[in-house]
């Protein structure tokens, strides 16, 4: 029972183990699983691929809820523990829900932000790998980041799902909702102002004299359209992308 309590609550050897064994091991395993899955699933039945991604989404959402319920139990702040603010937490919840129920509206938003949001685990990994050994908190973080990049890459590479640039306005609307959630709902609901979207905080890419807010928002919009163009290019539909842009 002591091992279970350490896994769920206390941790084993707390500390900063960024780029330690668990961190590097998780990167290697994540990349390997994505590459192997793409190779094995290319050309396979789309229903089978959908079942795999739905199963992963259900498991990931279950682990996420368990972890955050435990966090709420320890802090006695259940609502604040469950409410998502980080882009990766938002993606974990809503990408999983969208995949489970096969909803299409704003699906492009979660597919695109999932692919690029998971990169933050490697660019800004501080606070994730806070124990020498695997704990529920670390497992949930690794699994969540794995899921939100695995599902989009597998769906796009197998062409089970294709991005539609005519829906790019949905992505921009989604960005606005995410921004409103952090900048307006957070202080109103919890009386806190944590920089979840790194709009003021330090990131590896900064431009002297340019507010971080402008850099983050501009980069996000550019990344969205790059993702669309890459997807159209991979599917041999660049002409269609041009036609779709002209329609917009």
What does this structure look like?
With about 250 residues, this protein is mostly helical. The radius of gyration is 19 Å and the shape is globular. It is built from eleven helices and no strands. The mean pLDDT is about 85.
List the helices and strands and how they pair.
Elements: H1 2-10, H2 21-41, H3 46-75, H4 78-82, H5 87-101, H6 107-117, H7 120-123, H8 136-157, H9 168-190, H10 212-234, H11 238-247
Helix pairs in contact: 2-8, 3-5, 3-8, 5-6, 5-8, 6-8, 6-9
Major β-sheet profile: none
Number of strands: 0
Structural Rg = 19 Å
Overall mean pLDDT score?
86
As a percent range, the share of helical residues equals 55-70%
Distance from N terminus to C terminus (CA atoms, Å) equals 60 Å
* Total discrete domains: 1
Helix-strand category: mainly alpha
**Unreliable segments (pLDDT under 50, ≥5 consecutive)?**
none
Which strand-content bin applies to the residues? under 5%
Order of helices and strands: HHHHHHHHHHH
Report the principal-axis shape: globular
Quickly count the helices. 11
Keywords:
248 residues; mainly alpha; 70% helix; 0% strand; globular
Overview in brief:
Helix content is 70%, strand content 0%.
